[in-house]
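Exercise 3.2. Students should predict the tertiary structure of the chain below and write it as structure tokens, then compare their answer with the key that follows.

Predict this chain's 3D structure.
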Amino acid sequence: MAAEIHITGQKQLGRFQRDFTARFPHLGVQFFSKDEFGKAAKGEAMTPLDPKLKISEVRTVKVVSDFKIVGNLQVGTFEARMREIFGLYVQVCTQKGDEKFYTSGAEDKDTLQELNDKQAAKGYDKYTY
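Answer key:
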């Protein structure tokens, strides 16, 4: 069975990012405030949250739920569940050279493992923060 990523309130955003990218090397994840996330709809640049912050410090929803991230979870479902359970606005990202891209559309229908494998096959780089 593939490794799961468990989420706790005491985990720093940066630690979560490292765990996520260790499991899916060609994918990254960025965290945003609701206001920052709203900028995307206007075509404005978004500034991610400080990776030193703990999930408990930035979450806006306090639902008690055991949420594990596994490879067969769709990208869009992962992003939506993070909003529903933690109130965290997250975006899965990919990287090619110095350029970083947010997932959207068809990519959001891929599972995390499928997207990771597709990006590797297309020559995308391992994600760096």
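Discussion points: The mean pLDDT is 92. The longest helix spans residues 75-86.
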